[in-house]
Specification:
Structural class: alpha/beta
InterPro entries: AMP-dep_synth/lig_dom, ANL_N_sf
Domain AMP-dependent synthetase/ligase: 2-92
Strand order of the largest sheet: 1-2-3
Number of domains: 1
Strand content: 5-15%
Protein name: AMP-binding enzyme
Organism: Paracoccus solventivorans
Shape: globular
Order of helices and strands: HEHEEH
Length: 98
């Protein structure tokens, strides 16, 4: 998600990558709430920040504090961790290599 994108561009990215978890900070919390309503496939929206936790979101700090550290996931070079989009010179969102 990108704070400089329009809501339409953020919706496109969520839809395109079949997102199931979204992390938002204070600046993005309001749009995160709307995206949560618009995308029932989102299993969780996790708030990272100092502002009060918005309704229907989970607190990143509370999640970390309530769980024991996990073993390393032993990810390999081809394992997907994140998907990044760029507008490049055309201004149209495009999914680059993952």
């Amino acid at each position: 998600m990108n704070i400089r994108w329009s809501a339409q561009e953020n919706r496109y990215a969520l839809r395109d990558c079949d997102a199931v978890i979204l992390r938002v900070d204070d600046a993005f919390a309001e749009q995160g709430q709307q995206l949560r309503r618009d995308f029932p496939g989102l299993r969780a929206v996790i708030h990272i920040g100092d502002a009060p936790i918005p309704e229907s979101m989970l607190s990143y700090e509370e999640l970390i504090a309530s769980h024991e550290p996990m073993e390393d996931a032993d990810r390999k070079g081809d394992d997907l961790y994140a998907v990044f989009y760029t507008g490049g010179t055309t201004g149209q969102l495009d999914r680059p290599a993952q």
